[in-house]
TrEMBL record:
<dbReference type="InterPro" id="IPR001647">
    <property type="entry name" value="HTH_TetR"/>
</dbReference>
<dbReference type="Pfam" id="PF13305">
    <property type="entry name" value="TetR_C_33"/>
</dbReference>
<dbReference type="Pfam" id="PF00440">
    <property type="entry name" value="TetR_N"/>
</dbReference>
<dbReference type="InterPro" id="IPR036271">
    <property type="entry name" value="Tet_transcr_reg_TetR-rel_C_sf"/>
</dbReference>
<feature type="domain" description="HTH tetR-type">
    <location>
        <begin position="13"/>
        <end position="73"/>
    </location>
</feature>
<keyword id="KW-0238">DNA-binding</keyword>
<dbReference type="InterPro" id="IPR050109">
    <property type="entry name" value="HTH-type_TetR-like_transc_reg"/>
</dbReference>
<protein>
    <submittedName>
        <fullName>TetR/AcrR family transcriptional regulator</fullName>
    </submittedName>
</protein>
<feature type="DNA-binding region" description="H-T-H motif">
    <location>
        <begin position="36"/>
        <end position="55"/>
    </location>
</feature>
<keyword id="KW-0805">Transcription regulation</keyword>
<keyword id="KW-0804">Transcription</keyword>
<dbReference type="InterPro" id="IPR025996">
    <property type="entry name" value="MT1864/Rv1816-like_C"/>
</dbReference>
<dbReference type="InterPro" id="IPR009057">
    <property type="entry name" value="Homeodomain-like_sf"/>
</dbReference>
Amino acid sequence: MTASPPSSHAQPKNLRNTLVRAGIDLLEEGGIEALTLRKCAARAGVSHAAPAHHFDGLAGLKAAIAAEGFRIFSNYMREARAQGDQSARGQLKSICRGYLQFGVDHGGILRVIFGDRGLAGLVPGGAREDADAYQILREVCAPFVPEGTTARVIELQVWSLIHGFTMLSLAGEFGAPGGPLEDGLFDQILGLLNALGTSGTT
């Protein structure tokens, strides 16, 4: 006897999480173009109308995926920071490596996080997931803020460098995604961070 698909009204919280996970799987397999409400419902084993009970259209699903994506994104940077050189400059470069590795591993999620709202999503005082990711960036940039300089300027310099490199890498500008982590190019790009002034130990 074939099992019936789960009801779209049963265990609403779990179903919402299941739909988000299904959306992430679609992104991982086919990129942003593969993400639709109908495909998400099919992947979750529910009726095509089920997502409407949990999300305000595709934009609502993307927002939920972005929230989960920021959590994963933050963990990549946090783990890279913990595992790398613990000097101030080492931590700075480590979170950049974590950022790039997240993009390589989860390019579809990265595009959902930033695609519709540019870089505006990752700002202080945003959603908790956004703020967690930005706080990591802020903490590792803090030792490099010269007296009289606004911290945001340094944070944006670092962010622009790593985000730009990550997006160019995903677009294939440096060969197959992931290559720059291995062939030394990324290390050369990170060398630009050596020009940042410090107000503490490096």
